[in-house]
Amino acid sequence: xxxxxxxxxxxxxxxxxxxxxxxxxxxxxxxxxxxxxxxxxxxxxxxxxxxxxxxxxxxxxxxxxxxxxxxxxxxxxxxxxxxxxxxxxxxxxxxxxxxxxxxxxxxxxxxxxxxxxxxxxxxxxxxxxxxxxxxxxxxxxxxxxxx
Length: 147
What we know:
4-stranded mixed beta sheet; 3-stranded antiparallel beta sheet; 2 helices; globular
């Protein structure tokens, strides 16, 4: 009998998280400079806002909560994009979402991390970004019209 190894799908028991690619009208992306502290996944890296799912919480519920908790940010029309593992950081399966917000990021009440800042895509190569976040951003940008 032939056996075939199929790729494994994430199970409900796998640790999960969610991040959001937030863009503004200029096409810039909102990034979050993470604290450089022990116990923080990807310390001192620029990342997307987001975090882990609480028990029984879906990634869609988690991203709304995390945006509010981390930055007092409410984004209309968040859309789910794709999932990817954070194999070298939190170990979670991360769901990427996208939304737009055109406010002043310096006025947001940042509760975690060091700083929020919008960056034009051409400035991303010089930033220290976790590999799975960089890959997710590139995947999103490549799918945009005119990319």
